[in-house]
Amino acid sequence: IRKGISGSTIIEMSGPDNIKKADLLASEMSKMFTGEALISRPNIKGEIKLTGLDESISTNDVCDAIASAGPCKPSDITVGQIGRNRFGNGIVWVKCPKAAALALAEKNKLQIGWSRVTVELLPNRQIQCHKCWSLGHIRSKCRFNKDYTGRCFRCGEKDHKVDTC
Predict the structure, then answer these.
(1) Which branch of life, at top level (predicted)?
(2) Whether this model's pTM surpasses 0.90
(3) Is there a single domain that holds both residue 26 and residue 61?
């Protein structure tokens, strides 16, 4: 048992079957503390970049392929928007459990539909404050006066987000 960076209490499980034990503990604690405390079951995530997707592949196809190859639950996977490089090949950013990301990156290739895509493990990101956008601390520990919450990360305006800038 320890304190997290945000001040929350973290209970870590170790040993064999630690994932099952943690899931069981989280579900039992959620029943006990309904409405009194927020109980979550976070897991360490890894980020990968998939390149070489054809136009027929959707984000759901990517999620399903990673879940089956991972193995991990589709609910633990976050898939970004599929973009295109100058050659027309699809590129997508994926966040999934670290163990699945490492396993996929070790294989280096993943079959999705008719495409065999390249898997690249991205380096870990440093924590970033969502208030001042500085690195190395989080919002609850921020000492800066400027608040950039809800602003475009590229230009700093309030009317839109970075994906439409």
Answers:
(1) Eukaryota
(2) no
(3) no
